[in-house]
Amino acid sequence: MKKTIALALAALMLLVLLTACSAKPAETEPAELEQTVQTEQPAEPETDETAEDADASAEEETPAEPEQPAEPALPDGVYTADFNTDSSMFHANEANDGKGTLTVKDGQMTFHVSLVSKKIVNLYVGMAADAEAHEGDWLQPTTDTVTYSDGLSDEVYGFDIPVEALDEDFQLAILGAKGKWYDHTVRVANAQPAAAEAPADGTYTCDVTLEGGSGRATVESPAALTVADGRMTATIVWSSPNYDYMLVDGEKYLPTNTEGNSTFEIPVTALDTPLDVVGDTVAMSTPHEIEYTLTFAYASLIEAK
């Protein structure tokens, strides 16, 4: 009997021990699983708001470079330029050969054009539909005197037009004498430095530059320049006695001397502008016509005493 009770107690103790051992993993598994889940949990995806904040931060750290002002198309000065339009009724006066005067000052360009009559009373840079609402921006006329090839003169209207860019079309509305606006497309193109005006009548010296030929021939500089009735005549002295005539604008000019280096008196149409000439030399076995250009510098003019 005692032996039976002892076996029963041993079996009971063994059962208790087995129950306790099986309960321990059940207590630790949730903690370990939670730790594993927390360790393996992926990072939160970047949201649009987060990306915007990052971009803003990058912009703050890297300031944008300041925008550089655009370089003017031409240096300050006075130029002649073509005035191209889309109409045979609206164009530069024929006395000016379709051209006007472009003035560049402090990088700002203004184009003055003389029209064919006084029938166009205002201009507006933009569309005709917008002109009425911007009367303060209307361009006002100037009264210009033009002289035609037959010697007759006439008074016409001219305008000073602001120009943003050369060789590009822009809109220019015109107001006729009857009070109606019309749209036109125009362009200011082919700007060239304006030729200096002839000085007052008198006698001057003027620096002259010779280009062309082989480069061995030269002319005396400064040269004598005479102005009479607004027409300029230069005395050209070559470095050689072998020039027997010159051609200027198709006209033939002979030497004014018989001894010493060849000397000619030729017309000069404009200062600071290359003048095409031909010099015929007899230095070689047969005469040769050689093309040159002569440029007379306005800034070097000195009145002879």
Question: Would you give an account of this structure?
Answer:
- It is a single chain.
- The protein is α+β, with helices and mostly antiparallel strands and 305 residues long.
- Helices cover 19% and strands 39% of the residues.
- The chain is built from 3 helices and 19 strands.
- The chain has helices at residues 2-40, 48-61, 128-131, and strands at 77-85, 99-105, 108-114, 120-125, 142-147, 153-163, 170-176, 181-182, 185-193, 202-206, 208-212, 223-228, 231-237, 243-248, 251-253, 263-268, 275-281, 288-296, 302-303.
- Strands 1, 2, 3, 4, 5, 6, 7, 8 and 9 form a 9-stranded antiparallel β-sheet that branches.
- A hairpin with a 2-residue loop joins β2 (99-105) and β3.
- The longest helix has 39 residues, at 2-40.
- The chain is elongated and about 165 Å long.
- The N and C termini lie far apart (163 Å).
- The relative contact order is 0.10.
- Mean pLDDT is 84; it is low at 23-61.
